[in-house]
Amino acid sequence: MTEKLIDVKNVTLKNNCPECFSKDGLRLTFKQKIKDNKFYRSITSEISHEISCNKCNSIIYPVQWTDDIELVFEYQKKAFTPKKSSTYLKKASWIAIIAGLVLVAIIFALVFYLIL
Questions:
Q1: Does residue 116 carry a pLDDT above 70?
Q2: Which helix (H) or strand (E) element contains residue 67?
Q3: What is d(CA 99, CA 94) in angstroms, rounded to the nearest whole number?
């Protein structure tokens, strides 16, 4: 089973970077986890976030956030609506379900035939 994070929302921030002090390089990214295997694909409710600077190519960890960055982050977090948690059955799942139902129907038909 593979698990990956997909970008759900990217926001450019107008705050100063704590590393390089650039005012136009910060980017806030919200990511949501997806589980994928042969039988189904599931969008989970697990959300992660990351603030990075495009100028100095560094990740800004919460310890480094200024008060302004925290305020903007809290606002964006409230405005963010994640994708709904869901599970999508793939073709292999449907084939297995239908094969199981056909097998059960055949067994019931044989049992019913032998009783009569």
A1: no
A2: helix 67-79
A3: 8
Instruction: Give the distance from CA 49 to its chain's centroid.
Output: 11
Tell me the domain boundaries of the chain. 2-90
CA dist., res. 42 & res. 68, Å (int) = 35
pLDDT, one tens digit per residue, over 14-44 is 888 888 888 888 899 999 999 998 999 999 9
Q: What are the tokens at 53?
A: 């600077």
Q: Residue 10 corresponds to which tokens in the numbers above? A: 């990217």
Report the distance separating Cα 78 and Cα 64, nearest Å. 21
Contact status, residue 47 vs residue 78, Cβ threshold 8 Å: no
Q: 115 pLDDT exceeds 80? A: no
Q: What is the average per-residue pLDDT within 88-94?
A: 90
